[in-house]
Structures are given as structure tokens and as C-alpha cells.
From TrEMBL:
Keywords: DNA-binding, Transcription, Transcription regulation. GO terms for molecular function: DNA binding. Pfam families: HxlR. This is Transcriptional regulator. The keyword Metal-binding does not apply. The lineage of its organism: Bacteria, Bacillati, Actinomycetota, Actinomycetes, Kitasatosporales. SUPFAM superfamilies: Winged helix' DNA-binding domain (SSF46785). Residues 40-138 form the HTH hxlR-type domain. InterPro entries: HTH_HxlR, WH-like_DNA-bd_sf, WH_DNA-bd_sf. Residues 1-38 are annotated as: Disordered.
Length: 144
């Protein structure tokens, strides 16, 4: 049985904040969500590096502009189809820009945008965190 008089409309939030947020984990109001939100900074960062091969592609582009063939050489197991898809997705996210070079055959050079270059510290931290997790969970295969 519902007690209609005591219910708040669905769109009405609480008037006071009672949750004690960790100021390091959630330094601003955008992260104070109860579910994944597109404007949450953590969700934005995760979306930027999501997708198989994306982190490796970003890593290679951190070294400077690269052509499609050069990227295929650096990541030989990455198919041309998936490389094209990842580059297109990174362009749509505003992380990579493409420049068509004159001449025949037409060549394209890919370069990180300023937004794409900001991902460097995230990739460095992801690597360090992964190393630590492997060490702590003994998941490493003795490659130490």
C-alpha cells in the first residue's frame, strides 16, 4: 500500500547532502552521482580509452603523428578494419585529428588533439596500477 502524501515527485531531489564524499575521489559535484552519468569525469575518462586496442593506439600516437600504414606496422595484429574503426571513434571523441596529405596514393596522418594528449597521465597511471594489481594478486606469470 502506498502513502501518497509522504511521497516526493520523482524529479525532486533531497534538499540536503548527507553523504560524506571522499574529497580525493570526488573533488567536485559532477562525480556525485548514484549511477554512471555521461557528465561524470570518471565516466568521460573511461569512455575516452574504452575499446579493445584503443589504449595501444593512443600509446603509439603519444609518440607523435603517424600514418595508417605506420600504425599497422607498430601494431601488426590489429586488422585494418579495427584500426579504421578505432581511429574514427577517437576522432568522434575529439581525441585524434586526421590530416589528408597531398599526393597519390592519398595518405592520412593521425595526430592526438590537445584533449587526446591529456590522456597520457591516465595511461601511465593505468599501467602502474595494473602492475601493482598483478603483483598483489599474484596474477603475474613470473615475468618480473
Amino acid at each position: 500500500m502506498r502513502h501518497v502524501a509522504s511521497e516526493q515527485p520523482l524529479d525532486m531531489g533531497h534538499q540536503t547532502e548527507t553523504h560524506a564524499w571522499d574529497a580525493e575521489l570526488v573533488p567536485g559535484p559532477r562525480g556525485r552521482t548514484r549511477r554512471p552519468e555521461p557528465g561524470c569525469p570518471v565516466e568521460v575518462a573511461l569512455a575516452a580509452v574504452s575499446g579493445r586496442w584503443t589504449t595501444l593506439l593512443l600509446r603509439e600516437l603519444m609518440g607523435g603523428p603517424r600514418g595508417f600504414t605506420e600504425l599497422r606496422t607498430l601494431l601488426p595484429e590489429l586488422s585494418a578494419k579495427v584500426l579504421s574503426e578505432r581511429l574514427r571513434a577517437l576522432q568522434e571523441r575529439g581525441l585524434v585529428q586526421a590530416e589528408r596529405l597531398p599526393g597519390f596514393p592519398v595518405r592520412t596522418r593521425y595526430e592526438l588533439t590537445e584533449a587526446g594528449r591529456t590522456l597520457r597521465s591516465l595511461l601511465v597511471e593505468l599501467y602502474a596500477t595494473g602492475e601493482e594489481l598483478l603483483r598483489l594478486t599474484h596474477a603475474g606469470s613470473g615475468d618480473e
